[in-house]
Amino acid sequence: MDKFAVFGNPIQHSISPRLHNMAIKELGLDGFYGRILLQDGEKLKEIFLNLKLNGANITVPYKQNVFKICDFTDEFSKNIGVVNTIIKKRDKIYGYNTDAPGFLKSIGHLGNIKKVLILGAGGTAKALAHAFKSQNIDIQIVNRSISKAKNFNEFEFYNWQNFKPNNYDMVINSTSAGLNDNEFPMPKEMLIEILKHTKFAYDVIYNRKTPFLNLSHELNVPCKDGKDMLLFQAVLAFNLFYNNSLDEKKIEEAMRKVLDM
Ligand code: NDP
Prior knowledge:
The two termini are 27 Å apart. The protein has ten helices and twelve strands. The longest helix is centred in the C-terminal third of the chain and has 15 residues, at 227-241. The radius of gyration is 18 Å and the shape is globular. The strands form two sheets. A six-stranded mixed sheet has the order 2-1-3-5-6-4. The chain is of the alpha/beta class and 261 residues long. α1 links the parallel β1 and β2.
């Protein structure tokens, strides 16, 4: 039996096990996908190898730790130093990033996006910023603290103190504010100002009406949560677990059953 898992902290909220186990069942494969609460990021490699997992997904807050345990990574992950999917092949760990292509797939229906504001500067923000850059989309990043600016040298980076809002096609909450609390990703007045000048709001958090999404609704800004991003990154990760030998459409159909429940 093939064994997979998602690592993170917190991890209880993750629906990755349900998505992947549904795909395993619907595609008639012999496998199991579990969840692991990882208290110490330094133990990731040891636990991954001890459990003899074939592959895993890594979520908050370990996506940048995992890069250094990989023996090989794909080009995109190598550029950004952020991995969300690992696979063991012949005792070597291979790392990939499926968040960025998953996110781009999830906004395919939105049409022409030219200017984007990303709130937050963690692993997800980094993956999204580089994905947008590859599409020649103009990006600004604003984060609570300035300490992560060094990870965004090629981008316009601000903290709350020196940021002045512009007009945007899309604003994305890529912070974990709202994941386990009722916080806004930035001071509310500043967020209102931004939302008034944006066409679309996107929260990468899924399955929760976050304060960011509620405020977007209140201000009549069309918005969506991170469910489709989750779906598409999972489809791509699942296919990687099986050496890209499966039909993506079939994986998507299976996983959608979970989201539609
Ligand atoms: P990281 O831990 O790498 O980064 C978190 C970021 O959020 C940092 O910029 C941090 O700011 C900021 N932040 C945290 N709390 C607050 C707060 N209360 N107010 C303002 N800013 C805050 O996380 P990731 O980038 O890995 O993940 C971020 C979010 O994306 C999570 O909620 C995760 O669940 C979601 N996600 C969803 C996916 C999906 O498929 N839908 C896929 C991947 C992630 P600072 O630098 O100041 O600490």
